[in-house]
Amino acid sequence: MANHALASVATRLGARGYGIWRAWLRAKGFGILFLARASGRTPPKVISSLPAEKVANDVAILKDKIPDQSHAMTDVDYHFSNLWFAAHANNWPLATFYWNESISHMKWAVRIIPVRKDAAGQEIKLGDILQAIENSPYMQIGKTIEAKDLAEFEKAYRFTLDGCYSCHKAADKPYLRPHIPERPASSMINFDPHADWPK
Ligand code: HEC
Fold first, then answer.
1. If you take atom 38 of ligand 1, which residue's CA is the nearest one?
2. What are 32's strand-pairing partners?
3. For 147-188, what is each residue's pLDDT tens digit?
4. Helix (H, G, I), strand (E, B) or coil at 178
5. pLDDT digits over 47-84, tens only?
């Protein structure tokens, strides 16, 4: 907790509540160093010094809880598969949603592991590959959705699958070969833009 946050909690608690709260924090083993406690209504001044060891330990625990890259990619699989069916149902708002989700989950996957090594031990910057895919004139799926142009959408979708695969190959995973999905990944979402239930 940052110092100012501690001070503001203390202000809200008042002198008595603050004493109880401080005892509670001590009992919980927080390494808090209380410098001074002003009397009356003045908020007490507090600084915290969590031991570096504890912070490092907490960071390790949090890192352990972050989903791995494969998890983020499974989400891309889900969104990108649904995208194909949303477009074919002429449900362009839904297609826009799935395309945005596909992009944001690819970005997330890259944030999880930005650099991988190929078989030759060379560093591969995944962000650069994703950027190339985003900038490629052939892969402008977003524009084809805006134009509601199914034929162009299909072309851009196929080119993007090429892009997906180029990154899998670069990351030394050529066995992750995508294809046009046979069925939507979601059995829950209604792709029909004219559906009238639930209201
Ligand atoms: C920037 C690089 C990059 C791009 C672009 C990319 N992927 Fe991936 N993808 C990976 C990596 C790396 C893995 C392996 C992750 C692992 O092993 O933890 C992976 C794994 C996968 C998996 C397997 C997940 C699993 O665990 O079962 C699927 C499915 C997948 N990607 C789909 C796609 C699709 C679809 C696209 C394009 C719309 C795409 N990926 C674009 C890098 C990329």
1. 164
2. 48
3. 999 999 999 999 999 999 999 999 999 999 999 999 999 999
4. coil
5. 667 889 999 999 999 988 888 999 999 999 999 999 99
The domains of the chain are located at 3-65, 69-170
Ligand 1 centroid distance, CA of 98 (Å): 16
Residues facing residue 125 across a β-bridge: 115
Q: Give the DSSP letter string of 94-132.
A: HHHHHHHHHHHHHHHHHHHS-EEE-TTS-EEEHHHHHHH
Whole-prediction pTM value? 0.78
Q: From CA 162, how far away is CA 172, in angstroms rounded?
A: 15
Q: Which residues form the pocket of ligand 1, taking CB atoms under 6 Å from any ligand atom?
A: 68-70, 73-74, 76-77, 80, 102, 106, 110, 116, 126, 129-130, 133, 160, 164, 167-168, 171, 173, 176, 178
Report the separation in Å between the CA atom of 176 and the middle of ligand 1, taken as the mean of its atom positions.
7
Rounded alpha-carbon distances, angstroms, from residue 191 to 75, 100, 108, 179: 18, 17, 26, 20
Element (H, E) at 63: helix 52-65
Check: CB of residue 105 under 8 Å from CB of residue 72. yes
Fold of 69-170: Four Helix Bundle (Hemerythrin (Met), subunit A) (1.20.120)
